[in-house]
Amino acid sequence: MAVEIKTPDQIAKMREAGLVVAAIHAATREAAVPGATTKDLDDVARKVLAEHGAKSNFLGYGGFPATICTSVNEVVVHGIPSSETVLKDGDIISVDAGAIVDGWHGDAAFTAFVGTGHAPELVELSRVTEESMWAGIAAVKNGNRLVDVSRAIETYIRRQPRPATGKYGIIEDYGGHGIGSEMHMDPHLLNYVSRKRGRGPKLVPGFCIAIEPMVSLGTPRTHVLEDDWTVLTDDLTWSSHWEHSVALTEQGPLVLTAVDGGKAKLAELGVTAAPDPLA
User: Fold this and answer.
1) Which candidate, 96, 92, 40, 81, places its Cα nearest to that of 227?
2) pLDDT grade, residue 144 (50/70/90)?
């Protein structure tokens, strides 16, 4: 397995792309209101990319027909924006977005609540998924192995009180990935520990990874619709998806797609974020 190791200058370019992704997140989160269509959110993302002079790394990828992925309720990931999918009060939606700046990629996702009146287990599902992502990010340390990131994600989820549905399903068939001069690169990052996969590569400065747990309120198993993209849970329980792109530097982890570089959240976890190369 060949892992692309980035120079500080290349990480700075990835930080530029990451900030475009953060801008897409802010704009689409604001637009995710009852009555909006997922196509409306895609239009918002296209506008942000144009304003920043960036390119979409989703549009056309493997034939994908849109700028972002919009996954509503039981859709885990890769939902295709559509003028026919109208957001309703009480829905949850995961928005996955990316950007390319000067050939370097950023990729991140978040789960948002549409309107009001969400069941407590949905709020907790999103919180658990997001916090497990941050636990994984905090494990991005010089000398750790890839499996240490997987273990941190799984351990956080398993230690949480069980939801009313009985369990959290850590999605099995999808996970994180290397990122840099391409959107998806080696290594593949599982969100749980698999003895079959071994320990994975050692984390060294210049190592960049997209960390993205996906968790359901039921089964970890999924299926794909006839469009060859939309992924649903087998039992149709709702799910959450969170993701950040992270670079390991000589000074520690830098969350490329977080506005503050991950400084505040990592500090809560006892980790010092690397300085922002664009500051």
Assistant:
1) 81
2) very high
- Return the SS3 of 47: helix
DSSP class of 186: E
What is the spatial distance between Cα 16 and Cα 102, in angstroms, rounded to a whole number? 9
CA 58 to chain centre: 13
CB neighbour list of residue 48: distance below 8 Å, 6 or more residues apart: 20, 23, 24, 27
Percent of the chain at pLDDT exceeding 90: 95
CA angle 207, 210, 212 (to 5 degrees): 145
- Predicted confidence at residue 164, as pLDDT, reads 84
DSSP string, 59-71: TTGGG--SSEEEE
CB 269 within 8 A of CB 131: no
3-state secondary structure of 48: helix
Neighbours of 256 (CB within 10 A): 32
Place of tokens 């992925």: 69
> Residue 122: which residues within 8 A CB-CB, separation 6 or more?
92, 113, 217, 238
Q: How many angstroms separate the CA atoms of 55 and 225, rounded?
A: 27
209-222: burial string, b at 16+ Cβ within 10 Å, e else: bbbbbbbbbbbbeb
| Among the listed residues 216, 222, 213, the one whose alpha carbon sits nearest the alpha carbon of residue 239 | 216
Whether the predicted pLDDT of 194 surpasses 90: no
> In the prediction, which pLDDT does 77 show?
98
| Closest to 24 (Cα-Cα) out of 61, 88, 64, 70 | 70
Nearest to 126 by CA among 93, 152, 104: 93
